[in-house]
Amino acid sequence: MGKRRSFKVCNKIWQMNYLIVVAGGRGERMGLGFNKVFAKLGGRPLIYWTLAVFEKSKSIDKIIISAGTEDIEKIKKLIKKYKFKKVRDVIGASFSRQESTFVILDTLKKQLKKGDLVGVHNAANPFVSKAEIAEVFKNAKRYGAALLAQAARDTVKISNGQGKVAQTPLRQYCWYAQTPQVATFANLFKAHKAAKAQKFTGTDDAQLLERVAIKPKIVPCSHMNFKITFPQDLVMANYILKTWAE
Predict the structure, then answer these.
(1) What is the CATH number of the domain that holds 55?
(2) Could you tell me the CA-to-CA distances from 217 to 42, 113, 225 in Å, in that order?
(3) So what's the pLDDT on residue 84?
């Protein structure tokens, strides 16, 4: 890792913004037989598009990638080929996305200040915009935590666990969580540490923050910022790429 930059602005040490890109998936739901981050999108690996927007973003200082051990060298070659200068390391993923994120946070704890911001982003979300990145980091700085999310377009039903409707929440209060999800290092590490101690596995980082009484600010994002999970998503992604502008 490079030396820490230290600037003084109005007698305050400059805040660092880190991004953890989680790329440890196996692509089983895509049926590819390999990690979906290497699936071709516009003639280049999917992960290229994800990294490219953060490389160009003025909101991001350093990037760390979590990847399966079998993919590390391949990702390093891709980083070198496309000259992604903000990527500082590629760390072997653990048995789950959550554990992989915790390992990186634990590795960074000696380098980061409590108020530094850390975002977590799915490698398979290639269409987040630079404007959305800037907005979610700005709100995380103000509120201590924030996430990008899409306003629900459909009515959401809560089931009773037996296939029957138990509740219909008001749609104006429903959001589809996306990434990046960002928090101060202190808040994110606290949330992950508590989840690990309690052996709790959440669906995203925002849920872990909620469990330690930290309520992330919702920052609206485009419906183009979605996670590529199924084969049809890749078809849609190739279509979006033809007209997408950051």
Answers:
(1) 3.90.550.10
(2) 33, 21, 17
(3) 98
